[in-house]
Structures are given as C-alpha cells and as structure tokens.
Amino acid sequence: MNAPSDQSSGEGKSFWKSAEGIGALAALITALGAVLGVIVSTQGQEPPPPPPNDTSSPSSEPATATIALVYEDQDYGCTADITVHIANQVIIPTGARHTIRNVPIGLQPYSMTGLLQCNSLGVRCNLRESGAIDVAEGSQYAFVWEINTDAQTCSATLDEE
User: Fold this and answer.
1) Which CB contacts under 8 angstroms, 24+ apart, belong to 119-124?
2) Does residue 139 surpass a pLDDT of 90?
C-alpha cells in the first residue's frame, strides 16, 4: 500500500501521521487487543461441561394410559359375549366396567367380535366391528349398540364418555 504524501509543500507527510492513519492504527490496536484478551482469558480454563441430559425428551417407549370400557344395559336385557382388541391387547370384558392398562396414548385402532344377545327384543347377532379411539389417561369408552329388530342385525362402537 502506498502511503499518501503531501507533495505540494515538498515535505513528505506519512499516512500514519495523518488523521486517517491514526484512526486506522487505533482500530488495528483495538482488534489485536480483543483477540489477545480472548486468548488470555481462556488459557488454563477447562472446557465448559456438556449440557445435562434432557429428561423431558421422549423415550423409546410410548406414553401409555389406563382406560376403562363401560357397558350399561339399555333396559333390553342384552348380554354381550365379545372380544375387544385395542392396540395389540386382547380384552374380554366382564361386568359393567373393565379397566385396561398400558394402552398407548393417541389414536388407537380397535376391533370387536362376538355375540350380542337381547332376549327381550328377540335379537341375537354376531358382531364384527372396528374403529379407532383417541386414548387419553383416565378416559372411559362406552359400548354403544345399534339394534335393528326387523333385520335381526346389530352394530357396536366404542364412544368416549
């Protein structure tokens, strides 16, 4: 880099003695000081420890819930001899309430097969139903029957209460 000089007066004026040169020199000294300050401040220090393990991260096991299947007779004297499959579990409900543990949370497919018999209506039909429920902790799902006495058919779903 050529340093400008003042040729008009015949005297050589150095760039580093001009206002621009002094400003450039000050900037250079400041930058070098910052670099040296970082180097000096980090010498002899241990590297920072790794961040702690995040315990809120999802594990390889899915979150599960405990749910209940509920059957309420609709005053027709119906009995159900059914098998329910929910999220790879096989359930044979007994009684008016059946608790199921370790069901993955979220949308889960289900299927029901078996016999529904309503003596007071004179209906006996085989069920083969499927659907999905949105599993959440503590949820209850009721068996809901639809019976067509004329056609001697019935259907069933699990509805969240």
Assistant:
1) 119/77, 119/78, 120/76, 120/77, 121/76, 121/78, 121/147, 121/149, 122/149, 123/147, 123/149, 123/152, 123/154, 124/152
2) yes
